[in-house]
TrEMBL record:
Keyword field: ATP-binding, Cell membrane, Membrane, Metal-binding, Nucleotide-binding, Translocase, Transmembrane, Transmembrane helix
Source organism of the structure: Streptosporangium canum
Upper taxonomic lineage: Bacteria, Bacillati, Actinomycetota, Actinomycetes, Streptosporangiales
NCBIfam families associated with the record: ATPase-IB2_Cd, ATPase-IB_hvy, ATPase_P-type
Subcellular location: Cell membrane
Name of this chain's protein: Heavy metal-(Cd/Co/Hg/Pb/Zn)-translocating P-type ATPase
Length: 762
């Protein structure tokens, strides 16, 4: 409604000003003055309302000067000046409404997700009843894919639940008989029975909804930039106008002072710059819900980030395949993927994707059976394959070692057995986004002083991610209520940005000064609760948006300050009698145009903290990035070969060494040399100095040295076989190569290849 009123006011005042001008040019000056007086009166009504509204909220804004100028113009019959002020006010209000209109924190998706019914057992059969009728002690049936309606205990053997809505953790969690289950989670396995322990109103998910409503109502509107100057500008203007009238005895001078003091530079410059910033962020795939959110984003000093789906990919990935003694990792992955290609489980999909990445030929399985919470079995190439939980085997020491490693790495284990014997284990982890580290560094460069990672995930997993990314604090195992408390504590100290993507993040997003939702894959609730939505699944866009926000705010303040200085000079001239009200209004219009043109500089692209990559270098980056993806999997062959070097090397050991050396000399070293000759010089130009690639070149030299040393060992072994005295140094060489290559690949992907993520931002 307000929007249409503002547009109508602009239309009436602009039309009236033009009509009065036409009448004056036609010689009907009296009629023209009447029209201008009417325009002044029309503008005076809403302007007075704005002042009254501001007074009711406990503040007196600079709109009061406009009211006095309009009233004064009518009193001294300076109707043209009044009409000009009316048009300027209407224009400023229209721009302000466009630039600073905030989207409501509409959390409908969060509310609508709440279950409305439950399947309660009555006479031994599950019957659909309203969820409000469920009482503690009732036995409920939870079909596959449905949301758990109330808090309760697992009454069956096992429940496999997707708890991402509450914890943000992407990997389903198993709950055995008697374990507690919270409402709002999704049954990701077979149907199970639940014994209700609370009513729907008292359950976990109802608390999340109530929390979201509370934090939504706690949000306060942003005070306009112009009002921040009112504390000193308004009294100064009134004193100068009174002094001009008192000293000269001419009330028209006071009106002239008020006319040129009408704060249109403030009313127009800030909205124009902010509106330009909003347009700029949209080109980066960032929707900012209003100028207030953009302005606060430019002031942010603290950043809180959810882990799963924000700093990590949100999808589990295979990070390693460990073969049992006597088995090969390639065979373990191939057999597991052959069985899992018939499963819809999220971990099965990750295993199949990894096998396809390795270009493994997957045989067709037979007799495939899937037991939720346990795994999948099938017959492949005449062997019974089991993929899932570990089974009893003779490799207890090896299994314990793998469990310990998984715990240290924060990884999930999927065990593979062949004909009842443990053959290997597949480790999966939710990988850190390739652009996460670079984006966090950019955000620090943009002014973020403190970074906190907030997650419902386990502490050891969260800490491992936090250490890699260098955040200042990690808060793990956080409930939605705890997340809101943490956000509010940070917001009490500094302007705080919260980034998340799940339904469980919606209350925290609404509680932050600026909520940012990963809208591409995140929930509708988080997107609606947020002030900023990243429409592409790219964290680097947040850094782009912050660059734009800070620049837009800087231009807005600069434009307003410039306009104020010019207005003060004009006020002095008006007080001295050098400016009539109408001339002052025209001068003020010229000042307005000046500051608006300056404010529109915010539309121009800005490099900010993002490195600009030219098309030729980007093509090189993408080429070598693709090569990295094909070279990474065979790196595990180096470690596996070192693992298999026993105290008495066999002919097979020599074959593996030949295979490793062939991979290194025929595929990996040519890749590294091409990087050194083509990519690194180009990156030196992009990053501003050839010194930027020195550490990477040093890694290349170390890789070359270790490959040459391995070649020397192989040459000795070709004559007499692998000798016992070679083993220690040979293992050290292989393990060293594996470690250096993994670190080098990670560094290149973070420092260089992540640039391709943001290279096409414009």
């Amino acid at each position: 409604m307000r929007r249409f009123a503002t547009i109508a006011l602009l239309g009436v005042t602009a039309t009236g000003l033009l009509a009065g001008l036409i009448l004056h040019l036609a010689g009907a000056e009296a009629a023209g003055d009447i029209v201008w007086a009417a325009v002044t009166g029309v503008a005076l009504v809403p302007a007075t309302g704005w002042v009254i509204s501001a007074l009711r909220s406990g503040r007196l804004g600079v709109d009061a000067i406009a009211v006095l100028a309009l009233a004064g113009a009518l009193a001294v019959r300076e109707y043209l000046a009044g009409a000009l002020i009316g048009v300027m006010l209407a224009t400023g209000r229209a721009l302000e409404d466009y630039a600073l209109r905030r989207a409501r924190h509409d959390l409908n998706a969060l509310y609508e997700r709440a279950p409305h019914s439950a399947r309660r057992y009555e006479d031994g059969m599950p019957r659909l009843v309203p969820v409000d009728q469920v009482c503690p002690g009732d036995l409920l049936s939870i079909p596959s894919g449905e949301i758990v309606p109330v808090d309760g205990l697992v009454a069956g053997d096992l429940a496999l639940l997707d708890e991402s809505a509450l914890t943000g953790e992407s990997i389903p969690v198993e709950h055995t008989a008697g374990e507690a289950v919270r409402s709002g989670v999704v049954n990701a396995g077979a149907a199970f029975d639940l014994r209700a322990t609370r009513t729907a109103a008292d359950s976990t998910y109802a608390g999340v909804v109530a929390l979201a409503r509370q934090t939504e109502t706690d949000s306060a509107p942003v005070v306009r930039l112009a009002d921040r100057f009112a504390a000193w500008f308004l009294p100064a203007t009134l004193l100068l106008a009174a002094a001009a009238w008192s000293l000269s005895g001419e009330p028209v001078r006071a009106v002239a002072v008020l006319v040129v003091a009408t704060p249109c530079p403030l009313l127009l410059a800030a909205p124009a710059a902010i509106a330009s910033g909003l347009s700029r962020t949209a080109r980066h795939g960032v929707v900012v819900k209003g100028g207030g959110a953009l302005e606060r984003l430019g002031q942010a000093r603290t950043l809180i980030l959810d882990k799963t789906g924000t700093l990590t990919a949100g999808r589990p990935q295979v990070v390693d395949v460990v073969a049992a003694p006597g088995a090969r990792a390639d065979d373990v992955l191939r057999l597991a993927a052959a069985v899992d290609q018939m499963s819809s489980h999220v971990l099965a999909a990750a295993i199949v994707d990894a096998a396809r990445t390795h270009r493994a030929a997957l045989p067709q399985p037979a007799e495939v059976r899937e037991k939720p919470g346990t795994g999948t079995t099938g017959v492949v190439e005449g062997h019974r394959i089991e993929v899932g939980k570990a089974v009893a085997s003779s490799c207890l020491e090896w299994e314990r070692a793998q469990r310990a490693r998984a715990a240290l790495d924060g990884a999930m284990t999927v065990w593979v057995t062949v004909d009842g014997q443990a053959t290997g284990v597949i480790l999966l982890r939710d990988a850190i986004r390739a652009d996460a580290a670079r984006t966090l560094r950019r955000l620090r460069s943009a002014g973020i002083e403190r970074m906190v990672m907030l997650t419902g995930d386990r502490a050891e997993v969260a800490e491992s991610v936090g250490i890699v990314l260098g955040v200042d604090q990690v808060l793990a195992e956080q409930t939605p209520a705890a997340k809101v408390r943490a956000v509010r504590q940070e917001a009490a100290r500094a302007v705080t940005v919260m980034v998340g993507d799940g339904i469980n993040d919606a209350p925290a997003l609404a509680a932050a000064d600026v909520g940012v939702a990963m809208g591409a894959r995140g929930s509708a609730a988080s997107a609606q609760a947020a002030d900023v939505v990243l429409t592409t699944d790219r964290l680097d866009r947040l850094a782009d948006a912050m660059d734009v926000a800070r620049r837009s705010r800087r231009i807005a303040v600069q434009s307003a300050a410039t306009g104020m200085v010019l207005s003060l000079l004009a006020m002095a001239a008006a007080a001295a009698g050098a400016l009539a009200p109408a001339a002052g209004a025209l001068l003020q219009e010229a000042i307005d145009i000046t500051v608006i043109v300056n404010a529109l500089r915010a539309l121009r692209p800005v490099r900010g903290t993002r490195a600009v990559v030219d098309p030729a270098t980007e093509a090189l980056l993408r080429r070598f990035e693709t090569e990295h993806s094909t070279l990474r999997p065979p790196l595990e062959l180096i470690r596996e070969t070192a693992d298999e070097l026993g105290e008495t090397p066999s002919a097979a050991s020599l074959d593996r060494l030949r295979e490793v050396h062939g991979f290194l000399t025929e595929r990996l070293l040519p890749h590294e040399r091409a990087e050194e000759q083509r990519l690194y010089p180009a990156m030196g130009q992009v990053l501003g100095s050839p010194e930027a690639t020195v550490t990477m070149s040093r890694a290349h030299a170390e890789i070359e040295r270790l490959v040459r040393r391995l070649g020397n060992h192989l040459a000795l072994a070709e004559a007499d076989g692998v000798r016992a005295e070679q083993l220690d140094d040979l293992r050290a060489c292989l393990y060293g190569l594996h470690a250096v290559l993994l670190l080098h690949f990670d560094q290149e992907e973070e420092a260089y290849f992540s640039l391709t993520v943001g290279s096409s931002a414009e």
